[in-house]
Amino acid sequence: MHKIEWLENGLENISGFYFGGVNAGFKKDANDLGFIRSDEAVDVSAVFTQNRFKAAPIRHFLRYERDFKTNFILLNSKNANAMTGDDGVADIDEIFANLSQNLKLINPIMSSTGVIGYRLKKDKIISAARNFNLNSRDSNAVVTAIMTTDSFKKELACKITLENGECFKIAAICKGAGMINPCLATMLCFVLTDANIPKADMDELLELSAQQSFNAVSVDGDTSTNDTLMLLASKTSGVYDKNAFKAGLDLITKKLALMLVKDGEGSTKVVEFEVKNALNLEEAQKAAKALSNSLLVKTAIFGEDPNWGRIASTIGASGVKCDENELVIHYDDVLVYDKNHKELDEIREQKAHEVMKKPSYKISCDLRAGDAKFSAFGCDLGHKYVSINADYRS
């Protein structure tokens, strides 16, 4: 058994790391350049976007040998350094070559978010990076440095205490508010831990955690070029339990993923789309993600329209095994459809409408075709998407 407690101040709970941020002049009055560093090189695991046009920072990362260690991550906002070709990767090399004159860098990593298609302003980044307080442990400074269209900062930390009283901690910062689709969200997320976790477990558990969190949310159905989820371990606690670590990591990534949905550009509601008793897990995921991605469903959520037909139609169009005589749909605990209740009477329609007024609720779809279950999370798009957004962010 283990106990999980929430902590304040994000990354500051994790020993062995330093972090902070400065203004390089890309934002008017806020940090736009940040760092995470460690005295010793540490293990790092990562999950990246499924977009074929991977941004230069990801391409730079993937040049390293498998299971490399790092002691430095440079973070910037306002410029994604995406669709910049080999020049974009070379720009990162040049930045690190300059920084290495005053700082011992071991396999440094860069991660960027912002507008696609523009090369980095290297001189401004190099100059501003010289102002880093490399002994800083300011979680707020680094999380604000990666915020773009976010309306609030996203950071979490928890302490996991084992049955014998020993404990370790996990903390994370995240950004993301648009271009979010179940192939990671449009996000940068950095998870730090002092757990004495083996590298193989880092890789395994991070991938599994991504599937139930960042790969299970949708805002607008687009997949970014820069999506990045990283886990770094200082191992300074000397404590580790695989099941307890998985529970803590899954809890943090799921909460952060739901923050992304809540902060979706213009969204007003967060909805869980639960598909249960599907033929298999693949079909449960397919149907749930179809619901979370459907613009037809999103407009119904925004309009608070309890018309179950949009839900049923989307499930049928997803291609999974389903039968209209077996399907059962609930909005929270309100039955809106089964074979004996195909028309909403006035009472059930009013109850369903009241559910849809809430800022968050669950739409549960029982396919009665097997025993697999999966939940995806989505939202309405809200008023901001009435007009075309010409800013292609990542």
UniProtKB/TrEMBL annotation:
Substrate binds at T148, K175, T186, E265, N389, S394. Keywords: Acyltransferase, Amino-acid biosynthesis, Arginine biosynthesis, Autocatalytic cleavage, Cytoplasm, Multifunctional enzyme, Transferase. The active site is at T186 (nucleophile). Pathway: Amino-acid biosynthesis; L-arginine biosynthesis; L-ornithine and N-acetyl-L-glutamate from L-glutamate and N(2)-acetyl-L-ornithine (cyclic): step 1/1; Amino-acid biosynthesis; L-arginine biosynthesis; N(2)-acetyl-L-ornithine from L-glutamate: step 1/4. It is an enzyme of class 2 (transferase). The record marks T113, G114 as: Involved in the stabilization of negative charge on the oxyanion by the formation of the oxyanion hole. Catalyzes two activities which are involved in the cyclic version of arginine biosynthesis: the synthesis of N-acetylglutamate from glutamate and acetyl-CoA as the acetyl donor, and of ornithine by transacetylation between N(2)-acetylornithine and glutamate. NCBIfam families: ArgJ, PRK05388.1. This is Arginine biosynthesis bifunctional protein ArgJ. It comes from Campylobacter gastrosuis. The gene is argJ.
